[in-house]
User: Fold these one by one.
Assistant:
Number 1:
Amino acid sequence: MVRNGEAEMTLGEKLKSARKCAGLTQEQLAEKLLVSRQAVTKWETDKGLPDIENLKQLSKLFHIGMDSLLDCGETMDLSVMREEIHLEDYTYTRKWRGRWSKKAGKKDMVVMGRYPNAEIHGLVGKQVLTKGERATDHAVGFLTGAPFGIAEFLNGIKNLDKEFYLVNQSDKQFLVVVTDEFMESRRLVEKVTDRKFSFGGFSFVDCGIISGLEG
């Protein structure tokens, strides 16, 4: 479909782009919505349409307004910027107020350097288990006597090198993750206003402003 000489995104194309930007497979998205993977495939190929309840869940999961999803004349800004970083180029001195970990402090400096005039919030991020992962975790615990929560613990280990931030810059808002090697900024289509929110398979808690306060 073309309007004003520019290709327009169908609902299926928007869903596929949003899913990929959130880092989810079709199977993972299906588990979150309690539908089959085949249903997700049909939606993304425009061979089927999600019902109103699934549309609401998709809108909430991807932080995309339903109007934006349904309006084929509107393109979504789902741009993701990934930049290589070198933490050894930064010097951070431990402070009584601030990060105790030098590495975390350096990551704060990376974000503040990239967004010098923005309001930056530190986030605590936790990867949410899929339905399948929860079932496997309980099965392993039942069969082996291991404590429940092993899968959640392993997810936590896997994400130990990540620091998360919510950046407010003018009328734009970015969800930023910084690892030991790169910084990835994802512009959010709909602004987050709650202290607790979920996005892309993670749950987040806003721990407050680390940069951008007057004075």
Number 2:
Amino acid sequence: MKDEWLKVFDEKHQYIRNATRTEVHQKGLWHETFQCWVVTEEDGVHYLYFQLRSKSKRDFPNKLDITAAGHLLEFENIDDGVREIAEEIGISVTLDDLVYLGVIKNQIRMNDFIDNEHSHVYLLNKSFNWDEFHFQDDEVSGIVRANLEELKQFTFDHNVESFQVEGFIVENDEKVIISKMVDKSDLVPHHSSYFETIIPWIEKVFK
């Protein structure tokens, strides 16, 4: 598989040079990503959607993650990141459909994998039927949603160790409905400050 080339920045988000994705993650170089969270409202309750990463993914297989996200390549700008939504979950939108939340320093450190991202975060506030989601087999294997208030309690109250999700996974080309409790071990290990920042950003949109 050909290695992707990314733009490298310093911690203050100033461009430095280009580097391969492998080098970026081996050395913990700062780079840009696009992130989009899908949120919907039903009967006054807000739900946040997570994708289930495919078991064939190189990084964090079978973990719940941001609804749609991806690296911005060396020749791409922020607008180009919208492609990730269609590629990963089969939903076609434009940048005008999204609400820009801001840039967050998103860090993950595990053994020889160091991910330091300047992540451009967007929100897609729209209701979907489960049948509208379609996945690439090598990218995503399911989609679930969580009550935003329950996720908030899980994030800020250390006595709350799990939250409920509902949705479906694809097994042998069939959609299997699921509803279960999940905990930190089920999530991509973003730094705790990530959700502590993202959740207030999302809540502010609805105030």
Number 3:
Amino acid sequence: MKTAFVIFDKMTALDMVGIYDPLTRLKSMNLMPEFSWEICAPTSIVCDDRGLCFSATSVAESLADYDLLVVPGGFGTRPLQYDKKFIRWLKTAAPVRLKASVCTGSLLLGAAGFLEGKSATTHPAAVEELRSYCSSILDQRVVDEGDVITAGGVTAAIDLGLYLVERVAGKPIRARIAQQMDYLRG
């Protein structure tokens, strides 16, 4: 399974890393050795909304050949949803069978047309902006519409990462990764 983690300037780093960590454990824990990923961006270096910078492993290349697309949120989503060049690049992911976003990343999935006729969720502060892109907004942590999954605000990134682990590898694998991450210890 090949995953594209999309990054962009002024994203929220936790949105990306919160999903990245549980998913990449599929490989690092040898639970799904064929799991692979690229950090995909429109430029080679991307800095989050506080100045933390990331290096892309794939720059402005088509997103069509991935199995999973992951889009974070952050303040950068507001202008990017209207950036024709960025949205044209994101639309290359149309053939990707599973697309996911956390927080305001849903605005980018919506601007690319991936939320048409679907329910979605986002950060509570972006609900009105999301309304024009989807059929309904649900007040849920994770909304699964089959081929598109959206998650709420920033901390929902870890929830989404574990949810995606379960979708691609099953409940027992999710439990092993959650335990290894010390997630929600009772």
Number 4:
Amino acid sequence: MIIAGVMSGSSLDGLDVALVRFNGDEWRVVSTFCSEYTDKWVQRLKDYHLLSASEYIEFKFEYSRYIGEILTSIFDNTEEKIEYISFHGHTLVHKPADGYTEQIGNGGIIAGITGIPTIVDFRTQDVALGGVGTPLVPFLELTYLYGYDYYLNLGGIANITRSRNHEISAYDICPCNQVLNHFSQARGMKYDKDGMMASSGAYIEALDAYFSDHPYFESKPPKSLDNNWIREVFIPGIGKYKIEDILNTYCKWMANSIADQVDMSFDSRLYCTGGGTHNLYFISLLKTALKERKCELVVPSREMIDYKEAILMSALAKHYIDGKHNVLSSITGASKDSIGGAMYKVISDSE
């Protein structure tokens, strides 16, 4: 069975697709693809909150058709027979404390365009059960990538999974690429390649104090960050500083914030993935901060770094198809484990 895991991240860099073959308990990644969003769609996804109710409904349907067309184009250029699509959707709003979350990407439209059964909507049931609906990544880490003490993902948000003595917790630590890319784009670059701008900046103590001065960072898990809070509160509050200095200070603050999650009482290993792993300057800071806490930083293959969340979507779908739990209450704080997801399928005349 081949499942196409599809992920759209909060950093708006595009659509990641991983074709994963499952054979019993064995699995392997067959191939991966990345389709960048057009500038038009990047702006539309940023500005969705400016739409009226009717415009928003139209926007969601247009986005779903856009995703279906992208996937059709990708699948038309592969010889693999894809049996299912598993799409996380693009998160616009995530406020589990208020009882709601919104990931756009209509599975019925995608299934209708591609002709492939499509599984979507992995978070809402968990929120209804009292959970925060995220992170979902620990399911992949604990089920398919076991063997490490910590798992770190450096996407739009930095999140971590802690696994020690059968005790598991996972949560968002702090904004990551959303901040770094925002200021890089102010200089006309999509991102700070290798952290070159950050490495040329200076550390500003007042900025470090601002980054720390938010109740979220002191609260205990389960917890998760809302992208809107990052865009509307955290980033605007940074103020007017030289961009290189902002990037430098944020990288140092973030490295220390991540390292602070590590228990110094034993030697440990941390498995690091996500687009932020390519920021060589930041990774050097993180490696040093972790070493001081007796923790080894492990960076896997580029395929796993870039497509871990897309691979996760395939794994979530596999358990959905098998009727097994794929959202863990020990991670989200829900009242019980659940099988997240909803499938849309076009029935052929022969069925």
